[in-house]
Amino acid sequence: MDYYTLGKTGLRVSRLALGTMTFGEDWGWGAEESAAREIFDKYLAAGGNFIDTADMYTNGNSEKMLGQFVKESGSRDRVVIATKFSYNAQPGNPNAGGNGRKNIMRAVEGSLQRLGTDYIDLYILHTWDSVTPAEEVMRTLDDLVSSGKVRHVALSDAPAWYVSQAQTLAKERHLEPISTVQLEYSLVERNIEFEYVPMAKTLGCGVMVWSPLASGLLSGKYKPSEAGAEGSGRLATLAGSDNPAFNKFTERNWKIVAELEKVAKEMDRSMAQIAVNWVVNRPGVASVLVGATKLYQLEDNLKALAFELPKELQQRLDEVSKPDSRFPYTFFEPSLQGMIHGGSSVGDKPEGYEQPVFIPGKEEESTEDKAA
Ligand SMILES: NC(=O)c1ccc[n+]([C@@H]2O[C@H](COP(=O)([O-])OP(=O)(O)OC[C@H]3O[C@@H](n4cnc5c(N)ncnc54)[C@H](OP(=O)(O)O)[C@@H]3O)[C@@H](O)[C@H]2O)c1
């Protein structure tokens, strides 16, 4: 297992992080306790150290199980625990959710208690609440770092303008900066490439990827059928959900799955391994969260770093999954940029120079990016 530093911090984390949204059966598509324990033990034995949960996962049971497994394995010093706040714990009470100071202070105490620890390594705003000013969030998170309850901070599922504002405030006001942005990214969901990847690179944040298999779709376990799809697992259980994260049975996605299947056969690897390998190696990606309900799935996914995807196969996957061009990003593509720069190339500097801007379609990382 390789370890990378998390954003611009000194914290070293595994490239494959373990997601624990599936720890607990409360939501109808998770793993019961003994299966979750096996998954946790296997991840640690493989050298993994980065584990993600949230206060709302399986109604608090994910945090409780994780805390118990860490305690039983005596691994608290070794593991890096990430957890999240935002979702409401008391219907009818608007201040028992959201990203305001009152809720963050309430939520952190609950997470510490369920995890059975006195500090959280990475505390993550789970989802933008559309009301709390970035100043309030960053100041509160900074207070938690000063108090010792939290080591590093992150934002997930927030608009790019909001993350940029929060990071700029943090830097200008000498508050704890955002180390990481946690976002959905996979062969079927590449929207973050337009705004978030260049944002993260510019602001010095790592991208921590969630749902690299699109909730299991990219493992190849689902097939298109007249009724919509065949196959069992989370996406079948949640069919018809109005959450886009679980609505993956589309014509476009089946084409991507079909090409992925061909590539996996050519590589003699599972589809899941190819899909995880593809996303791990995308520009800006620091860590990828793998999730599992069964031990064999984690064992499969952990092999995703053991090979290199030949350029030609990678390009086939890039091509079939390429997101449609959209305004205003069309103006930043090389053809239109050429009209601005008089035909001379942008960003091609001798080795050692930092590439100044991110140019869509020109995604090779500079030497400096790789070192970071
Ligand atoms: N910040 C956020 O908003 C956010 C949102 C979602 C997730 N997350 C985090 O990201 C983590 C990972 O997300 P995810 O669970 O959606 O990841 P994912 O890799 O897209 O999906 C994992 C699911 O796919 C199936 N699967 C995994 N490996 C497989 C394999 N090798 N073969 C066949 N099926 C396989 C399993 O579900 P079945 O057995 O049911 O098929 C497993 O639970 C979560 O645990 C959580 O920590 C964060």
SSE layout and pairings?
Layout: E1 3-5, E2 12-14, E3 16-19, H1 33-45, E4 50-52, H2 61-73, E5 80-85, H3 101-115, E6 120-125, H4 134-147, E7 150-156, H5 160-172, E8 178-184, H6 192-203, E9 206-210, H7 234-237, H8 251-267, H9 271-280, E10 285-290, H10 295-301, H11 311-320, H12 334-340, H13 367-371
Parallel strand pairs: 3-4, 3-10, 4-5, 5-6, 6-7, 7-8, 8-9, 9-10
Antiparallel strand pairs: 1-2
Bound molecules: NADP nicotinamide-adenine-dinucleotide phosphate.
Residues 19-22, 29, 52, 126, 156-157, 182, 210-216, 219, 221, 233-234, 272, 289-293, 297, 300-301 line the site of NADP nicotinamide-adenine-dinucleotide phosphate.
Question: What would you note in describing this structure?
Answer:
The chain has two domains: 3-315, TIM Barrel, CATH 3.20.20.100; 329-371, no CATH class. 38% of the residues lie in helices and 13% in strands. The protein is built from 13 helices and ten strands. It is globular, with a radius of gyration of 21 Å. The strands form two sheets. An eight-stranded parallel barrel has the order 3-4-5-6-7-8-9-10, surrounded by five helices. Strands 1-2 form a two-stranded antiparallel ribbon. β4, α2 and β5 (80-85) form a beta-alpha-beta unit. It has helices at 33-45, 61-73, 101-115, 134-147, 160-172, 192-203, 234-237, 251-267, 271-280, 295-301, 311-320, 334-340, 367-371, and strands at residues 3-5, 12-14, 16-19, 50-52, 80-85, 120-125, 150-156, 178-184, 206-210, 285-290. The chain has 372 residues and is of the alpha/beta class. Residues 365-372 have low confidence and may be disordered. It binds NADP nicotinamide-adenine-dinucleotide phosphate.
